[in-house]
Amino acid sequence: MFGKRIRTARYARWDADAVRDDLRAYAVEHLGTDGGVLIVDETGFVKKGHASAGVQRQYTGTAGRIENSQVGVFLAYATSRGRALVDRRLYLPEQSWCGDPERRQTAGIPETDRLRPNPAWPGR
Fold this sequence. Notes:
By secondary structure, the protein is α+β, with helices and mostly antiparallel strands. The chain has 4 helices and 4 strands, in the order H-H-E-E-E-E-H-H. Strands 1, 2, 3 and 4 form a 4-stranded antiparallel beta sheet that branches. Strand 3 and strand 4 form a beta hairpin. The longest helix is centred in the first third of the chain and has 16 residues. The protein is globular. It starts with a helix and ends in a 17-residue tail after the last helix. The mean pLDDT is 84.
């Protein structure tokens, strides 16, 4: 059963930005209080293959060295009522991803997602 869910999540067509927007609205409605803070954090995901979007040999603090990995920036909202991730941005290496339209297409990265020279905060 778990394997079927993973395949569905990987291959199903869904709007990640719409899910993010719904989650953000839910977090504000249910967690919002005076004194809430936004937390920005970069993290890496060590990977074995080369097909995952943005993967290449690069420094990741997760491993503390250069590894085959993805790097992303995440925004969390935290209050006394709880916390939630409310946004994300994946770093796309310039030459190995932004300069390779076929690789982007295979990974499902739209042509409109262009160069992200560093894991800059979403919205920039």
